[in-house]
Amino acid sequence: HDSFAYLNGELCIEGLSVDEIADKVPTPFYCYSASTIRNAYTLLSDRLRPTGASICFAVKANSNISVLRLLSELESGMDIVSGGELERALAAGVPPSKIVFSGVGKTRAEITRALGVGIHQINVESRAELDVIRDVARIMNCRAPIVFRVNPDVDAQTHAKISTGKKGDKFGIAIEEIRELYAKAAESPELDLQGLAVHIGSQLLNLSPYRTAYVRLASLVKKLRSDGLPVRRLDLGGGLGIRYDFGVGPNVSEYAGIIQDTVTSLGCELTVEPGRWLVGPAGMLVTEVLYLKETGDTVTAIVDAAMNDLMRPSLYGAIHPVLPLQSSDDRAQCAYQIVGPVCETSDVFGSYGDLPPLHSGTRVAFGCAGAYGASMASSYNSRDLIAEVLVDGGRFRVIRRRQTIDDLLPLEKPTPWSTINSC
Ligand code: LLP
C-alpha cells in the first residue's frame, strides 16, 4: 500500500509522519488513510463492473460517519445490521434507496424506522421475522421490499467464529425451506418480494466457497422461476478476506469472475457487501509503550492500547502486524510480547520477533486495523473509547474525539425508584 511508507525513516500515511500526528493526538488512536479506502473501492468497483454488481459497504466493519461519507461519495451503498447503523448511514448522507438491512434480530422499532425512511431492502432471516415485517408494513400501509437470506450450507473455510453459511449457523433460512416460503410471501400484498441473499462468512481467503454458494443460489433462482415466482435481485454478501501479514490477498478479478460465471446470466440486480476488504488495510492503531518488564524468558512491552480498543487478537487469536514508527537500519531484531493494560490474561496483541529495541515512550502501530477495530471497541475497565483520525490529501483531522469519563458518568445517574403494584 503506497499510502503507507517510510519516508526519511519515519512511518508516514499519505506523506504525514504518524509520530508527528501522535505528538498532537494522544495515543492510543486509530488512524485511517482516505486514499487507501478510495483506491480499494475504485479497484473493486472497476473489477465488478462487467458483472453488473454494485457495492453496499458493510457498516459494521467501520461505522465512523466520515468513513461512511467518504464511501458514499464514491457511490457506495450501505449494508446495515441495526437501527444505530441506519442512523449513521443517514447522518453520512447515504440515500435510503442505497441501504440494505441484514441481521437475525431486527426489532419491530428498527423495522418500522427502516420502512419509514424508505429503505431499499430488508434481508429476512426467519419466518418469525417475516411475520413481524408483514405486520409492520400492514400497519404503516406500505409494502416492505424484502429478500430472503438463504443459508446455502457451505463451509466458508474461515475462522469458526465468523463462518455463517453452514447448516446450523444462526444465519439465514435453510435452503430447502425457501421455495415454500417464497411462494407464500409472494401472495402477501404487504411484501414486495425482490429476491434472495447469501453471506457465507467473513475473512475468506480461498474464493472457492463463493462459487459453491453462488451455484446453489443460481439453481434456487431457476427453481423459483420455474414455479412462476419473480426473482429480481441477488445480494451476494461480503466476506472478502485480507492478509494480515501484508501478503497478497484474494484476487478480486477472480472474485468477479466467479460472480460472472455463476449468477450474472440470471439477469438480476446484483449487490455485494464487502466490509473488511475495503477498509481493513487502510487503518492502523497507534500506541505507545508504557513499560517493559521481564516475564519468564520473554520481554513484555506493555502498551497504552488494549483488547478493549482492538478485540480481534483476544477474540479470534488474530495477529495484527506491528509497524515501528521509525525504521531502524541496524534492525536489532528484538523479540517482545506486546500486551495491553487490561486485567485479562488474553489482553495480548502477540509476540513479535523482529522489532527494533523498544523503550518506555516508543510508539508503534498495529496495521490492518481499519476494519473491526474501532467499531468493536468497548470501554471495559472503564477505558475511554479512543479517538479516530483520518488522513486525506496531506492533512489530518480527528473524526471521532476520544471519549472522556465525563461523557459516561452522567449516564449512570440513577432514576427515582419505581415500584410494581402486585395484587
Ligand atoms: N454482510 C453480512 C450479512 C455480514 O454479516 C458481514 C459480516 C458482512 C456482509 C461483511 O463481511 P466482511 O466483508 O467484512 O468480511 N468481527 C469479525 C468479522 C465479523 C463479520 C460479521 N459479518 C472480525 O473482526 O474478523
TrEMBL record:
Q: Which UniProt keywords apply?
A: Amino-acid biosynthesis, Decarboxylase, Lyase, Lysine biosynthesis, Pyridoxal phosphate
Domain (Orn/DAP/Arg decarboxylase 2 N-terminal): residue spans on this chain: 42-279
Pfam families, A to Z: Orn_Arg_deC_N, Orn_DAP_Arg_deC
Q: Domain Orn/DAP/Arg decarboxylase 2 C-terminal spans what residues?
A: 30-370
Read off the SUPFAM superfamilies from this record: Alanine racemase C-terminal domain-like, PLP-binding barrel
Instruction: Give the annotated active site.
Output: 343 (proton donor)
- Per the record's keyword annotation, is Signal included, yes or no? no
- EC id: 4.1.1.20
Claim: Magnesium is one of the keywords in the record: no
Entries under CDD domains matching the protein: PLPDE_III_DapDC (cd06828)
Name the PROSITE patterns on file. ODR_DC_2_1 (PS00878), ODR_DC_2_2 (PS00879)
Q: Which GO biological process annotations does it have? A: lysine biosynthetic process via diaminopimelate
Provide the reaction this enzyme catalyses.
meso-2,6-diaminopimelate + H(+) = L-lysine + CO2
Give me the residues that bind substrate, please.
276, 312, 316, 344, 372
Obligatory cofactor(s)? pyridoxal 5'-phosphate
One function term, GO molecular function aspect: diaminopimelate decarboxylase activity
Residues annotated for pyridoxal 5'-phosphate binding in this entry: 239, 273-276, 372
Describe the task this protein carries out.
Answer: Specifically catalyzes the decarboxylation of meso-diaminopimelate (meso-DAP) to L-lysine.
Family, per the entry?
Answer: Belongs to the Orn/Lys/Arg decarboxylase class-II family. LysA subfamily.
Subunit structure, briefly? Homodimer.
The name under which this protein is listed is Diaminopimelate decarboxylase
